Structure formats: C-alpha cells, structure tokens
Amino acid sequence: MRGEHDSLLPEVIHKMKIEKYASEFKRCVKKNRVLVVDGPEPCESQVREWFEHNYAKLGYERVITECCCTKPTCEYRQLQLKIALHEPGYQSRPDYFVLERGAQQWKVLEAEDFSGTYLGHRNGYADIVLCWEDNRKLTGVKVIELVKVLGYKEVIAKKEAVDWFYDHSPKFRRNYEREFVEVQRSWFKNPDTTELSQRTKFILESQLPITPHIGDVNW
Domain residue spans in the chain? Predict the structure, then answer.
C-alpha cells in the first residue's frame, strides 16, 4: 500500500465481503509460511508463553524462572549467586535458568521480542537468546529464532495484517484497484470518511485470523 491509495484502502475493504477475504488471507499466509500473532506487534510475552509450555521441544530438561520463587534461599537465588549475576538492577534477574537434557551445567536464557532488544544487556549476560527473529545477528550468544523453530519464514502481528495482505495478495490488490475509482468519486460526499476509515480497517483486522493455538502446547 503506497501513496494516495493508503487512506482509501479501508473504504474498499468496507465494500468487500470480509469473510471471503479472511479465507484468502489464510491461503496467502500459508503459502508464504507466515505466522500471524495477536496484538499490535510480536512481543516478548508471546515468546515467554510458548517457551514455558514447550521448553522440552528445544531440548531443555528443566527451567527455573524468578516468578516461581518466593524465598531468598530458593533454587533460582542459589543459581543467581553461583553464576555471579548479582549486579544491582534488572540485570541481576535472568529470565530463565535452563538445564539441557543430559547436561549438568545451568545456562542463562533471555526471552526477547527480537534479538536486537538483547543489546540492552551487558556483554556476556546470557548464554542463550530466544526471540521471534534474529534481526541483529548477535555474536557471542546462541540465538534461537522461534519463527524458524515453528516452521515459518516470517512473523507478523494482526495489526500489520491488512498492509501485509495488500502487498502479498494480487487478488486482493486487483479488487482494490477495480473499486478505487468508485470510492474516489464518493470520497468527498461522506463527512465521516476519516472515522469510517479507522473503523473499517479495525473491522477487517478483527476478522483476519491469527495462527491457531497461540501460546498453546500444540502451537
């Protein structure tokens, strides 16, 4: 979606059969191996949710996180001190301690939305970064790209779905272009065009499906 077409796209969608395009959207994301997650953008909490249900799929036998610890002498605190991550502030609290299957040494795993976010930590802070995509090509740390683990090429948020759909579906584009002139003729007749644009796009976003089983064990 580019240029003058941008603001008119929602009005065109309003004239289309949303259910039909929801089906087309499913086919399009499947063909392009795109994972669609809920919300305005792929986020760290989604990575965490998947990991806490599915860490065994990555070869980890045990996982310890701070949120399940309530006493200073808990296992998390003991590991924290043992690995010497006791600097003041948030960097003294790793997201997870993980033990690989058959191993004896615990490692630190940080969950991020994208690998670039990890750059906010000090060097050597974690052994492993689990994220949606490695957008900064980190060195000195193992990066696990969740989108690849799940068998997809790309991850997008539902909030981005309309724009992505327009760019990747010739059928959707053709219908849009065909109705563009008609919409343009009525453009100045509706005093609530801006509000209609926002509402219509929101309606389509709500209809376009996310990938099933988000955060579920079977995801």
Answer: 3-33+154-207, 44-115+124-147
Residue 172 burial (10 A CB sphere; 0-12, 13-18, 19+): buried
Q: How far apart are CA 122 and CA 181, in angstroms?
A: 55
CA 143, 152, 53: angle at the middle one, nearest 5? 65
DSSP 73-127: TSHHHHHHHHTT---SSGGGS-SEEEEETT--S-EEEEE-SBGGGGGGSPTTS-S
Q: Global pTM?
A: 0.76
Using DSSP, state whether 55 is helix, strand or coil.
Answer: helix
**pLDDT at site 218:** 41
Choose among 111, 33, 28: nearest CA to 65.
111
Q: Is the pLDDT of residue 100 over 50?
A: yes
Sorted by sequence, the CB contacts under 8 Å of residue 158 that are 6+ apart come out as 36, 37, 38, 39, 205, 208, 210
Helix (H, G, I), strand (E, B) or coil at 51: helix
pLDDT tens digit string along 149-163?
999 999 999 888 888
Tokens representing residue 57 in the block: 């799929």
